[in-house]
Design a protein that fits this description.
This protein has eleven helices and five strands; from the N terminus they run βααββαβααβαααααα. By secondary structure, it is α/β, with parallel strands linked by helices. The longest helix has 13 residues. The structure holds iron/sulfur cluster (2 copies).
Length: 248
């Protein structure tokens, strides 16, 4: 059997997840020994843009008709579709204003010419097509990407943490920023997987990995209000990457 064929694509986003893949410098040669990367515009100028793919990894949110068409075409030619990064999984930073008046936003930024732009409120990939695996993070964690490739080569999907960031934080024996300093730390509502990188550096988590599926935001917000942290403060912080209550 030949190597599995893989495509790596970017919709509207910062390309940080594709860069995270290219940054797997020590593992890149092993990767290309096991997978056949056929279509990866950011990594190669020679691509097969029409072949069938076993796996497509797609970064970015859908903000334009062009994105939507591209995503549907990728879905059609791929066996498995992986949403790569917080924008692809949740809508991400671009979805901050998804309920705002689009025409007004375009005019505010681009003046009269804004009316002609191909631009729509940001959507996550699963809002348009079936997504088989999500690797969240802003950007993704290298280890989770490599685990996904290893899992897919073995014919199964990787299992990622499904618990709150606080668990990782406490396992690292950090003092809690929320309890001990009264800071707005989004750890209780954020899915683990980054090793509590920010609290480890004494910086409150801003929830860049997106929400925990099983979180109970209302109960958490009530508890925080009792500690003097306003609901709005937490909601504003969390909605930078995914609105409270966002679920697949
Ligand atoms: S510092 Fe933040 S992530 Fe760590 S335990 Fe406290 S609330 Fe959770
Ligand atoms: S601690 Fe929070 S903000 Fe920092 S990388 Fe992890 S999820 Fe993102």
């Amino acid at each position: 059997m030949g190597k599995p064929t893989v495509g790596i694509f970017g919709l509207t986003g910062c390309a940080g997840d594709q860069l995270a893949i290219l940054n797997c410098e020590d593992e890149l040669l092993d990767l290309v020994a096991f997978i056949d990367i056929r279509d990866f515009l950011m990594g190669s100028s020679g691509n097969d843009t029409g072949c069938a793919l076993d796996v497509a990894l797609v970064e970015g949110a859908v903000l334009t008709n062009r994105d939507a068409e591209m995503l549907r075409a990728i879905r059609q030619r791929s066996g498995l579709l992986v949403a790569l990064g917080t924008c692809a999984v949740w809508g991400g930073v671009a979805a901050l204003d998804r309920n705002a008046d689009r025409a007004r936003l375009l005019e505010e930024i681009y003046g009269e010419t804004g009316h002609g732009y191909d631009s729509m409120p940001a959507r996550a990939l699963h809002e348009l097509v079936k997504v088989d695996l999500r690797i969240t993070g802003c950007p993704i964690e290298k280890d989770q990407f490599l685990a996904a490739i290893a899992g897919l080569l073995n014919g199964d999907l990787p299992v990622y943490p499904d618990y709150a960031l606080c668990t990782e934080c406490r396992m690292r024996e950090n003092n809690c920023l929320l309890i001990e300093r009264g800071e707005v730390c989004c750890g209780p509502l954020t899915v683990a997987g980054c090793g509590a990188r920010c609290p480890e550096l004494r910086i409150a988590c801003i929830g860049c990995r997106g929400p925990l599926d099983d979180a109970n935001p209302n109960s958490m917000l009530e508890m925080l209000e009792k500690k003097g942290i306003g609901r709005r403060q937490v909601e504003d912080k969390l909605r930078t990457f995914a609105p409270i209550g966002a679920r697949q």
